[in-house]
User: Fold Phosphate/phosphite/phosphonate ABC transporter substrate-binding protein from Falsiroseomonas frigidaquae.
Amino acid sequence: MSRFIANARMYAVAPEAEAAWQALIAHVAAEAEVALDYEPYPAPQPLEVLWRRPDLGLVQMCGYPIALRIADVVPIAAPIPAAEWAQGRAAYRSDLIVRADSPFRRLEDSFGHRIGWTVAHSHSGFNALRHHLLPHRQARGGDLYAESVGDLVTARAVLDAVLEGRIEIGPLDGYWHALIARYRPDLTAGIRVLESTALAPIPAFVASPGLPAAAVARLRAAFAAAAARPWFAQHAAALLIQGFAPVEQADFATTLDWDRAAVAAGYAVPA
Assistant:
């Protein structure tokens, strides 16, 4: 297979963001001398189908499914959000959001109501949420919420469900939240954050094992050098990033630790 695809679906929060990702990927690929075809893959098409394709060249993938090995991929590099909470690392968190006019002032105020989550292989929309709630569930000795609304699939669906009152609280990938606030401030004006989870490894660009190892090495080097290139500043401003860090499979082990703790406690889904 001589052609490989690129895709930034996870953080293509708006057409402007996807265009910036496409342009940035083109610069990185050109420097690495790797031919890539950018292929849009809009929601709600299932990401796990995309991740299992044999022609991945640079595609964003959540760290939890990387750790779970739901697809055979080679992690390459991950963005470093230009946010104080990221601490200069390729890391992110989940923001637990409610409507701006919600009476809830503490996370505990939301207990007994309706919570939503995206999909069971998501870190930001499921695993991080469950890990954050686990101490409260253990202290309470049972479920925290009257209803758990699952399989919302995307962060945008969680945002819409909160705004529309179908759930009272839900998780948003903190970096996705920052991007949507930049491009659709009308949406985020209607929500606020009750709490945020601990940091975890942010989704990364991955390739399929069919991409030659030499090409992977050149892509890693091109990402590492990106912040020093003259074209980077424009795209960094559009994407709220300050650079990239190289990543490997082992870097996502934290997500499995969080999963094991919840499973050992009998906490199958956020509820």
The two ends are 45 Å apart (CA to CA). The domain at 91-200 is CATH 3.40.190.10 (D-Maltodextrin-Binding Protein; domain 2). The chain has two domains: 4-83+201-256, 91-200.
